[in-house]
Write a structure and sequence with these properties.
The complex is a heterodimer.
Chain A (H helix, E strand, L loop, with lengths): L1 E2 L1 H7 L4 H8 L3 H8 L7 H11 L7 E2 L2
Antiparallel strand pairs in A: 1-2
Helix pairs in contact in A: 2-3
Chain B lengths: L1 H7 L3 H20 L7 H10 L2 H14 L5 H31 L4 H8 L2 H17 L3 H30 L11 H19 L7
The chains are: A mainly alpha, B mainly alpha.
Chain lengths: 63, 201
C-alpha cells in the first residue's frame, strides 16, 4: 500500500521523530509505515488521519 | 553512568560473544578438571559482568534505531534480572549438590531453583507483548518469537527421533530455553534484514 506520509510530514516540516512522538509510536515504526514496509492497523491509520485532519483514503492509497 | 553507556557501544552481539566465550571457556576448564571451586564461580561472576554492558549496548542500539519504547526498556531491564538470576541460581544449585550431596526436599528445591529465573524470562516475554503499545514493535517481537519456536520445534524433533533410534545421546530438556533464546536472536537479526531500521528518509 502506498501512502503520502512523507509529503504530509514535509508540508508541516516535521521529522520522523516529531511524527512518532505525536502518534506515540517509535520512529522506526513511522519509517516502516512511510516506506511501505508495514501497513498500520485500522486504529493507527485513524490516528494518523486524525492528526493530519484528512480522511484515511487521502493518506493511504491502493498499489 | 553515561560514560559506561557510551563505552558499551551499540553492538550487543559483541558482549553476547564475550559472555558466550567465557561460559564455553569455563565449561572446557571444568570438563578437563583444570579449575576448582571457588575459582569456577569467580570466573562465572567475572564473565557475567558482561551482561551489564550487553544490556546497555542493546539500549543504545534501540535508542539509535528509534525503537527504545518504555516496554522495550522494561524488557531489557527484566532480561538483566533473569540472566543474572539464572547464573546465581545455577551456581547455588550446583554448589549445594556437589558440596552437600542433599536428598529429599532439599534436592527437589535446588533442582527447581534454576527453573525459577527461566519462568521469569517467559513471563518477561509475555509482559513485553502485553505492555508494548507500538504495534510495529510488537509485531517484530512476535515474528522473532515465531521464528524461535519454529527453530526449537525443528531441533527438538530432529534430536528426539535421533535419540529414539539410538543414534544420538540423550539431551536434557533444559536445552529448550537456550535454543529458543538463540532462535529469538536469529529472528531479531532477520527482522533487521527485512525491516525498517534505516535512517530517516
Amino acid at each position: 500500500m502506498n501512502n503520502r506520509l512523507k509529503v504530509l510530514r514535509a508540508e508541516r516540516n516535521w521529522s520522523q521523530q516529531d511524527l512518532a512522538e505525536r502518534l506515540e509510536v517509535s520512529r522506526q515504526s513511522v519509517n516502516a509505515i512511510e516506506t511501505g514496509k508495514y501497513d498500520p492497523s485500522l486504529p493507527l491509520a485513524f490516528r494518523i488521519a486524525d492528526l493530519f485532519g484528512l480522511p484515511i483514503e487521502a493518506i493511504f492509497l491502493r498499489d | 553512568m553515561s560514560g559506561l553507556r557510551q563505552l558499551a557501544g551499540r553492538q550487543p552481539v559483541l558482549w553476547a560473544a564475550v559472555f558466550g566465550a567465557g561460559m564455553a571457556l569455563i565449561a572446557w576448564l571444568e570438563h578437563h578438571h583444570l579449575i576448582v571451586r571457588p575459582w569456577n564461580l569467580v570466573l562465572i561472576a567475572l564473565f557475567s559482568v558482561s551482561l551489564w554492558p550487553l544490556a546497555l549496548a542493546a539500549a543504545n542500539r534501540a535508542a539509535a534505531q528509534g525503537t527504545n519504547t518504555p516496554a522495550m526498556r522494561a524488557y531489557h531491564r527484566r532480561t538483566i534480572i533473569w540472566s543474572l538470576g539464572y547464573l546465581v541460581a545455577i551456581s547455588i544449585a550446583l554448589t549445594v549438590r556437589n558440596t552437600f550431596d542433599p536428598v529429599g526436599p532439599v534436592l527437589w528445591a535446588i533442582a527447581v531453583l534454576p527453573s525459577l529465573p527461566i519462568f521469569y524470562f517467559i513471563w518477561t516475554m509475555g509482559r513485553y507483548l502485553v505492555e508494548e503499545s507500538d504495534e510495529y514493535q510488537r509485531m517484530r517481537m512476535a515474528r522473532a518469537g515465531l521464528i524461535a519456536t519454529g527453530i526449537l520445534l525443528t531441533v527438538a524433533t530432529f534430536l528426539g527421533f535421533l535419540e529414539t533410534f539410538g543414534v544420538a545421546p540423550h539431551v536434557d530438556a533444559g536445552f529448550a530455553v537456550p535454543v529458543w533464546a538463540a532462535g529469538l536472536g536469529l529472528g531479531q537479526c532477520l527482522n533487521r534484514q527485512t525491516g525498517s531500521d534505516g535512517d530517516e528518509a
